[in-house]
Write a structure and sequence with these properties.
Layout lengths: L1 H10 L4 H38 L11 E13 L2 E12 L8 H7 L2 H12 L20 E2 L3 H21 L7 E11 L2 E10 L4 E9 L4 H13 L8 E5 L3 H11 L3 E5 L1 H9 L4 H15 L4 H15 L4 H8 L7 H4 L4 H7 L3 H14 L8 H16 L8 H18 L12
Parallel strand pairs: 4-7, 7-8
Antiparallel strand pairs: 1-2, 2-3, 4-5, 5-6
């Protein structure tokens, strides 16, 4: 009976008085927790000061430092700077003693990280202060203005950009390289995604250019090589179909660059040149060809389709025939079907590009190319934290690596990429 009464009470809606009391309790609890935390920190600082100055009111002949009262200071708390009184200590020679806990809690890094996190989840600089937990009344704070948050975001992304665009790639056992571009205003950002022999994904590099031309692609690949990415052995390179990308890959890798044109891009390019009533049948025919699992049969089916389109739709036929063999490269390697589907398209990097576009939509005005690169690096580095291995990576990727090494043997073995003319 008592249990039923309790359940009945829980099921009833709270009265306005109960809601007010609940809000007051929550606010006071939050203020208590924050106040207790600040008191605990100040006690920690006093303990550190006692460790260097010794106990209060005790004579010490070998005293190394003395207490020097308190001074106004600021600590990082909850994404803002909070003003507190800082315990001070000085050596017997008059030099300031730095307390370890104060240095840690006063550092700018947590603020930069918080600003970056807030931007990634969609909080604007104007609303940054409203997104933070409230502090008790009477506690002076600063660092939540639009300009302050913007400066911290720029500092955090600048540091991240330097780290990402300059890191050494020697340890990446690359098997697959995917390259695609994203257009932001008048700029193109080329993004390189790698898949290693264990099926792990790595964002390798980003390069800005006016267009997706050979020079920009060559600059991206050259940067990867300068950062010690191996180009002296066979690598599967998956591209969106741009001729400039394919040309740059051939110049760098030569015969050791196995180019796979994205089948989705190929299908889209062909269908865009057909009338609505023709698209369904042609789409089905291309899907059957790419899904048959045999490169010879797939080429025959696609060649026959191009022949049927040639008279009434010459543009679609030419688009289908252009680079046709390179859309079947992965199929010729006879990999497991699950891996073949992953490597026959640029969908893996398209998902990464989608993260860039999503984050970029929050920007009202792009000031310059460097700002675009900073935001792009921020987006891809955040997306990289959610990367998952290629499905069935261990068994499937080992077969791919065997096929790539066999191609090395067929082309007289790997060469030294630093002495080869690119």
């Amino acid at each position: 009976m008592k249990k039923d009464a309790v359940e009945s009470f829980r099921g009833k809606a709270q009265s306005p008085i109960q809601l007010v009391l609940s809000a007051v309790v929550k606010r006071e609890l939050r203020e208590f927790v924050i106040s207790a935390g600040m008191a605990g920190l100040l006690a920690m600082l006093e303990d550190e000061r006692a460790a260097v100055c010794g106990p209060r009111y005790v004579h010490q002949s070998d005293r190394r430092a003395v207490r020097a009262g308190h001074a106004p200071g600021e600590l990082v708390m909850g994404g803002r700077r909070v003003r507190v009184k800082r315990p001070r200590a000085r050596t017997v020679d008059g030099e300031e003693v730095v307390l370890p806990s104060w240095s840690a809690f006063a550092a700018e890094d947590p603020l930069h990280e918080r600003a970056l996190t807030q931007m990634l989840v969609g909080v604007s600089t104007r609303r940054y202060g409203r997104s933070l937990e409230a502090v008790p009344d009477g506690v002076p704070t600063r660092g939540t203005s639009k300009s302050a948050v913007s400066r911290r975001f720029v500092a955090a992304t600048e540091a991240q950009m330097g780290l990402w665009l300059g890191r050494d790639l020697a340890e990446v056992d690359l098997a697959v390289l995917m390259i695609d571009g994203v257009h932001i205003e008048d700029h193109v950002l080329l993004v390189a995604l790698g898949i290693d022999a264990d099926g792990k994904k790595h964002v390798l590099g980003i390069r800005e250019g006016a267009t997706e031309n050979t020079a920009a692609c060559a600059a991206l690949l050259g940067d990867l090589r300068e950062r010690n990415l191996r180009t002296d052995r066979t690598t599967l390179v998956v591209l969106d179909g741009a001729k400039a990308l394919a040309k740059a890959v051939r110049e760098l890798y030569g015969a050791r660059g196995l180019i796979q044109r994205c089948q989705c891009h190929k299908m889209r390019n062909v269908l865009d040149q057909l009338s609505e009533e023709m698209r369904a049948s042609v789409r089905q025919a291309m899907r059957e060809a790419y899904g048959c699992g045999d490169a010879g049969r797939a080429k025959k089916l696609l060649t026959n389709l191009a022949r049927r389109l040639r008279d009434d739709h010459p543009g679609a036929a030419a688009s289908l025939e252009e680079g046709l063999d390179e859309t079947l490269t992965v199929m010729r390697l006879r990999l497991p079907r699950s891996l073949e589907r992953v490597l026959s398209t640029t969908n893996a990097i398209e998902n990464l590009i989608g993260s860039v576009r999503e984050l970029g939509r929050r920007v009202k005005r792009w000031r310059n190319a460097r700002m675009i690169i900073r935001w792009t690096v921020t987006a891809v580095s955040d997306a990289a934290t959610r990367f998952r291995r290629v499905a069935g990576a261990r068994a499937a990727m080992s077969k791919l690596v065997i096929a790539l090494r066999a191609h090395d043997t067929a082309t007289n073995g790997p060469i030294d990429s630093r002495t080869r003319a690119a």
